[in-house]
TrEMBL record:
Protein name as it appears in the record: Phospholipid-transporting ATPase
Necessary cofactors: Mg(2+)
CDD domains the record matches: P-type_ATPase_APLT_Dnf-like
Catalytic activity: a beta-D-glucosyl-(1<->1')-N-acylsphing-4-enine(out) + ATP + H2O = a beta-D-glucosyl-(1<->1')-N-acylsphing-4-enine(in) + ADP + phosphate + H(+); ATP + H2O + phospholipidSide 1 = ADP + phosphate + phospholipidSide 2; a 1,2-diacyl-sn-glycero-3-phosphocholine(out) + ATP + H2O = a 1,2-diacyl-sn-glycero-3-phosphocholine(in) + ADP + phosphate + H(+)
Length: 1328
């Protein structure tokens, strides 16, 4: 595409908190226009002199060719360890204190820096390629010079440009919608790239532009747009458009097309760019990869500081020793000291200072330089193997676990508290309509319950089929009743059954609707209620021409009619039917249809060019109109008039007679419902089962079809969307039958019941309905159903006009708009008339009860934080085994903060005195608000289970107050489970933060919706579930799982492995470096503490970096101290990570003591072997290096529990590499680094039997205590297991002991790999 010749003028100006956008096609304002009332900076901006417009170029790279080296080094030096090693290497360049050749000393740190830099460079290059691909995507931009749309790259788009988009194209920037090919000014977009939701969203052309008859011309656009500055809030957009005549129109998020979304079901749209490039909401939300510091890493940093302190102490001790030694042998200094050039010598104090700095250089390996890089490598490999675990793959959704945070895998093995959402996390979030009550009468829907039971029986029969069976599955639903607590691991899903083809259709770009199962769609209506609905329909069809047809109905039938109208239209469900032309309900045939009919009669239609009218939607339109014309001509031949749409907005087949002879049945096309939440879809399908079907929804009207009344078209005046504070939504409509303005409200019973008309002696009917409905709501909640109340209000014209004025002011406000709209909605949603309530069943996910049981056995405390009402949450909690029927449940419901404080004190006293209480005493304790739903049995004693706590949202708000949070936390800590009901997203995050900060516990939060994001981000580990509420939770999480049940394997298996591997690897690093440094330190006692080393500097520099690094990496990636099936069978083994048995301060210091002991053995055995011999220092030091290598590998062998061919290969390779380098170095580099002369040292040692003898004796002797303790630990474990009764033997697995298991598979998380030998973990195993 041709490039732009010159940059665009600034199309916006910032003014306070707003931005002004104007068309880039307009000429610059004249100087006269700019002078009046404008500052100098504003005049310059208006004249286009200030070019501060963000273009649409995407740049996520961090470096350029020039900035890479300095910027990358600057970032790497943010790590104090790198600064430390560079400082040591530079210190070695000082002649007075150097210990090695300066160039050689730089090699390790340069190697580490180079490896990290290469990794960063590769990642940045990958980002550059991605940026280049996106920046060079094409789109149509209106050109002022060519006066038409031309192709431009995305990166060439600027604020103020006009962009034309076609169906299935991705939106390149944040664009204000000004024109659409849709006759009603609508545009459908898919936001999957933004938030993962595949259901279509509707966007509306800006008010005032959708009425344009001719095609939109960007050259005539002279309006000015005033909107908020760029921000990352995807849920709102505030602004207004100011026309030339001074009139304003409000702008909302429904008018904005966000970058990254895709145009669907709309032939073409045109809009003006509001935000471009990194100012778009999508890019402002892209904060890059999440970085968290794991608890093990924080503890490791603390131990690194201990090593630094130990290094300073050893160097200081050596410096003092050298000063004293120099002072003692002052008279013999000429024998060992080289004088300065002027003949003078150093004083003992100066020599001691130099010795201190030299010892820092010599003993620098005490700080593991490769530890951080090794940990990163191991974590990346661990994440890879977790992703490859076939047991974490969900066939139903064709998704697997995602690791989004690479640096906290070990935290998965230390979790103590799990905070879980309920809906969509523990349950399927697939709603099934079960029961309802209308006008105080309950309809149990027994036939519908029997239908669901048949599905469950079919599921049960499927579960009995063997795994390898070849039975054909039917298309049955995926839900099970919450009362069925045992489910197989294989989910029977309606849209999974059959083949992969069904799943592939979900990924097809033409299929964007959630595939509801027959359980959700095919609802069996209650006969009594269906009869009443039909009675309403028939009566209204007869009396529709009367002035007030609804007034002729009885109060009960009127409520029934309004109830189903509310179910149908009080939502945001989108109806799509791509095979039928969309047209607005109006008087007669729409004008565009007339034009099309005229074209249809013309023979030139056949020769229409493909580019203009030959597109698919237009052909479908012509096809539909041909059918209309054929139907009209057929009716004319029969003498049947063509049905017309009545003036009141509905059409009825009763207006026309039907032929007596039978007609061929025409296949009725099923409409597709695309709902933003499963609740809405369930209610729409329920209404459809009662022949009250939603058939069309536009931005200003909703159409409902009934059998006798025909199509009713309601004028949609306002939609007051749902929010978590109001907990309800409302629609304001003009009723086509009465011409009245009605408000239909649907929401939680806890809020709707408080908004009803006050009790009135004249409203006996409404009072009776309220009390009966409340009783049924309690019944539904006890059955675990999600409840919603349906209410209505009739507005007079005066009331509506008064409210409308304030509402329009709130809509046109830029600042504080959300608060004003919130207050406007509250003013409208009052004095409601209760119609009825619904009970919807949200079924448990497969395996949830079993998973919760396993997690509890693993020592995890599980808290459920839900927005559902208390009774519903309690019922679900019993179904999923969060609560047990034989345990005491404490409920905390307070009406004020004072009452909450009193109840907390009462509860704490009760819990602390449980050891001696009786059921009667408990009963007396729970008189005021503190109730026990299920009291413990009379036989309960101190050893009985801990109670569980249930608290509602209002009481939770009081309990989270600064004065009460400690009491609440202490009470919750004593409870087995905690269930928080009616909790808001903010309360969820506050609870997690409270436990994390006060108890210093490791927390995990899991959820599936946008309301769980804050909780997920606050926890130490956040887990998202890719459910029916989009991907917001996944995008904010550290790990993403397809189902809740996969949390069991993720924590108990992979979490345990990751923590055990990294903890042992870190301890092994400290042990290895301390032991190697110890060898050098003991030598100082024999060299006057002169900081000399008996080990060649080549071995000193490269020993940790090359010779001994690979085996521990392989063990850190592949080692499994306990097999997966044992961990799942004995979840108590997970407690070792919670108690930090692998890596705690005691283990660290025992490890350091063991390293010191081993260094003594490995130093003095060669010393005694070569004592009083004529070997030189390096000939004696080389065997010590070889012994250290053998000791390290044998020590690692003791700690390795899973041996594979990779472990053997790594060990053999390390030995081979050491001896190969030594032989080549000793043969070819005799005088490379004088004064040392390593010539032929290794070759001579290989011919000396003493060398082989000490290489055998020293490692075995050094590791003998570890072997003895291993044997004693194993023997005591076996003895205890034999003596304990069988029912108590399982408790022995809560430690790190495991029976010997031979021949299990290893090499990958899924259990595939080479044959291995599984050994047992002992005392030192849990220590290091």
């Amino acid at each position: 595409p041709p490039r732009r010749k010159q940059p665009r003028r600034a199309g916006w100006r910032a003014r306070g908190r707003t931005r002004t956008v104007r068309s880039n096609l307009l000429p610059p304002p004249s100087a006269e226009d700019s002078v009046a009332g404008a500052t100098k900076g504003e005049r310059l901006q208006r004249l286009g002199c200030v070019q501060h417009v963000a273009d649409n170029r995407l740049k996520t790279t961090k470096y350029t060719l020039l900035s890479f080296l300095p910027k990358n080094l600057f970032e790497q030096f943010h790590r104090l360890a790198n600064v430390y090693f560079v400082f040591i290497a530079l210190l070695n360049f000082v002649p007075a204190v150097n210990a090695f050749q300066p160039g050689l000393a730089l090699a390790p740190v340069l190697f580490i820096l180079a490896v990290t830099a290469f990794k960063d460079l590769w990642e940045d290059y990958s980002r550059y390629r991605s940026d280049h691909e996106i920046n060079h995507l094409g789109c149509l931009v209106f050109s002022r010079e060519e006066k038409k749309y031309v192709n431009r790259f995305w990166k060439e788009i600027h604020v103020g440009d006009f962009v034309r988009l076609r169906c299935n194209e991705i939106i390149p920037a944040d664009i204000l919608l000004l024109s659409s090919s849709d006759p009603d000014g609508l545009c459908h977009i898919e936001t999957a790239n933004l938030d993962g939701e595949t259901n279509l969203k509707r966007r509306q052309v800006v008010r005032g532009f959708s009425e344009l008859v001719s095609e939109f011309n960007p050259l005539t656009f002279t309006s000015v747009i005033e909107c908020e500055k760029p921000n990352n809030d995807l849920t709102r957009f505030r602004g207004c458009i100011i026309h030339d005549n001074g009139k304003k129109a409000g702008l909302y998020k429904e008018n904005l097309l966000l970058r990254g979304c895709t145009i669907r079901n709309t032939e073409a749209v045109v809009g003006i760019v509001i935000y471009a490039g990194h100012e778009t909401k999508a890019l402002l939300n892209n904060s890059g990869p999440r970085y968290k510091r794991s608890q093990l890493e924080r503890q490791m940093n603390c131990d690194v500081l201990w090593c630094v302190l130990l290094l300073v102490c050893m160097s200081l001790f050596s410096a003092v020793g050298h000063g004293l030694w120099m002072q003692r042998y002052q008279d013999k200094k000429a024998l060992f000291d080289v004088p300065e050039s002027d003949g003078s010598s150093l004083s003992p104090v100066t020599a001691a200072v130099y010795s201190f700095l030299t010892m820092i250089i010599v003993l620098q390996v005490l700080i593991p330089i490769s530890l951080y890089v090794s940990i990163e490598i191991v974590k990346v490999c661990q994440v890879y193997f977790i992703n490859q675990d076939i047991e974490l793959y969900d066939e139903e959704t064709d998704s697997q676990l995602q690791c989004r945070a690479l640096n906290i895998t070990e935290d998965l093995g230390q979790i103590q508290y799990i905070f879980s959402d309920k809906t969509g996390t523990l349950t399927e979030n697939k709603m099934v309509f079960r029961r309802c009550t209308v006008s105080g009468i309950e309809y149990s829907h027994d036939a519908n319950a029997q239908r669901l039971a048949r599905y469950q029986e079919a599921d049960s029969e499927e579960e009995e089929v063997p795994r390898g069976g070849s039975s054909q599955r039917g298309s049955i639903g995926s839900h099970q009743s919450i009362r069925i607590l045992h489910r197989s691991q294989s989910t029977k899903s309606y849209w999974r059954t059959g083949s992969r083809k069904t799943l592939g259709s979900l990924l097809d770009p033409t299929h964007h609707v959630y595939p509801f199962s027959p359980q959700e769609k095919d609802i069996t209506p209650d006969p009594k209620l269906l009869e009443k609905v039909n009675e309403c329909d028939k009566y209204l069809a007869i009396s529709r021409h009367q002035e007030h047809p609804l007034a002729q109905l009885s109060p009960e039938l009127s409520d029934v009619f309004d109830f189903f109208i509310a179910l149908t239209i009080c939502n945001t469900v989108v109806v799509t039917s791509p095979d039928q032309p969309r047209q607005k309900a109006s008087h007669g045939v729409p004008p565009r249809a007339h034009d099309a009919l005229a074209l249809l009669r013309s023979p030139s239609v056949v020769s229409l060019p493909e580019g203009e009218h030959g597109s698919l939607p237009f052909r479908e339109l012509l096809s539909g109109l041909r059918k209309m014309q054929q139907g009209a001509s057929h009716r004319e031949r029969l003498g049947q008039p063509t049905p017309a749409i009545a003036s009141n907005g509905y059409s009825s087949p009763a207006d026309s007679w039907e032929p007596e002879y039978p007609q061929e049945p025409q296949p009725k096309q099923e409409l597709r419902f695309e709902a933003e939440s499963p609740d809405e879809a369930a209610l729409v399908y329920a209404a459809k089962a009662y022949n009250c079907a939603l058939v069309d929804r536009l931005h200003d009207q909703v159409s409902v079809e009934l059998p006798h009344l025909g199509r009713l078209t309601f004028e949609l005046l306002h939609t007051l969307g749902f929010d978590s504070i109001r907990k309800r939504m409302s629609v304001v409509i003009r009723h086509p039958l009465t011409d009245e303005i009605n408000v239909y409200t649907k929401g939680a019973d806890s809020v709707v019941m408080d908004l009803l008309l006050p009790y009135d002696a004249r409203g006996q009917h409404q009072n009776k309905i309220r009390s009966k409905t409340q009783n049924y709501l309690n019944l539904y909640a006890m059955e675990g159903l999600r409840t919603l109340c349906i209410a209505k209000r009739v507005l007079s014209k005066e009331e509506y006009a008064c409210w409308l004025q304030s509402h329009l002011e709130a809509e046109s406000s830029v600042d504080n708009r959300e608060e004003l709209l919130f207050q406007s909605a509250i003013r409208l949603e009052t004095n409601l008339h209760l119609l009825g309530a619904t009970g919807i069943e949200d079924r448990l996910q497969d395996g949830v009860p079993e998973t919760i049981t396993k997690l509890r056995q693993a020592g995890l405390q599980i808290w459920v934080l839900t927005g559902d009402k208390q009774e519903t949450a309690i019922n679900i909690a019993y179904a999923c085994k969060l609560l047990d029927h034989d345990e005491e449940v404490i409920t905390l419901n307070a009406e004020s903060q004072e009452a909450c404080a009193a109840l907390l004190d009462q509860c704490l006293h009760h819990v602390q005195s449980r050891g001696s209480y009786t059921p009667e005493k408990t009963e007396s304790c729970v008189n005021v608000g503190f109730s026990s739903l299920y009291l413990a049995s009379a036989t309960s004693t101190v050893s009985g289970p801990s109670p569980s706590l249930v608290i509602d949202g209002r009481s939770l708000a009081y309990a989270l107050d600064k004065n009460l949070e400690d009491k609440f936390l202490f009470l919750a800590k004593q409870c087995r489970s905690v269930l928080c009901c009616r909790s808001t997203p903010l309360q969820k995050s506050m609870v997690v933060k409270l436990v994390r900060s006060k108890l210093k516990a490791m927390t995990l939060a899991i959820g599936d919706g946008a309301n769980d994001v804050s909780m997920i981000q606050v926890a130490d580990v956040g887990v998202g579930i890719s459910g029916q509420e989009g991907m917001q939770a996944v995008m904010a999480s550290d790990f993403a799982v397809p189902r809740f049940r996969y949390l069991e394997r993720l924590l108990i298996v992979h979490g345990h492995w990751c923590y055990s591997r990294l903890a042992n690897m870190v301890l092994y690093f400290f042990y290895k470096n301390t032991m190697f440094v110890g060898l050098l330190f003991w030598f100082q006692f024999y060299c006057g503490f002169s900081a000399s080393a008996m080990i060649d500097q080549w071995y000193l520099i490269f020993f940790n970096l090359l010779f001994s690094s690979l085996p521990q990496l392989v063990t850190g990636v592949l080692d499994k101290n306990v097999p997966a099936h044992v961990l799942l069978l004995k979840p108590q083994l997970y407690k070792s990570g919670q108690n930090r048995e692998e890596y705690r301060p005691r283990a660290f210091w025992l490890n350091m003591v063991d390293a010191a002991f081993q260094s003594l053995i490995c130093f003095f055995i060669p010393y005694l072997a070569y004592y009083d011999s004529d070997v030189d220092m390096f000939t004696w030091g080389t065997p010590i290096t070889a012994i250290a290598l053998f000791t390290f590998l044998l020590h690692l062998g003791i700690e390795t529990k899973t041996w594979t061919w990779l472990n053997w290969t790594a060990c053999v390779f390390s030995i081979f590499l050491f001896f190969t380098v030594a032989l080549i170095y000793n043969a070819s580099c005799a005088t490379c680094y004088p004064p040392s002369n390593p010539y032929w040292t290794m070759q001579a040692l290989l011919g000396d039997p003493v060398f082989y003898l000490i290489c055998l004796i020293a490692p075995i002797t050094a590791l003998l205590p570890r072997w003895v303790l291993e044997f004693v630990s194993d023997f005591s474990t076996h003895t205890a297991a034999i003596l304990l009764p069988k029912d108590q033997q399982g408790a022995q697995h809560s430690g790190h002991k495991c029976t010997i298991e031979r021949g299990h598979r290893a090499g990958g998380p899924g259990g595939s790999g080479p044959r291995v030998l599984q050994t047992r973990r002992g005392c030192f195993g849990s220590m290091s």
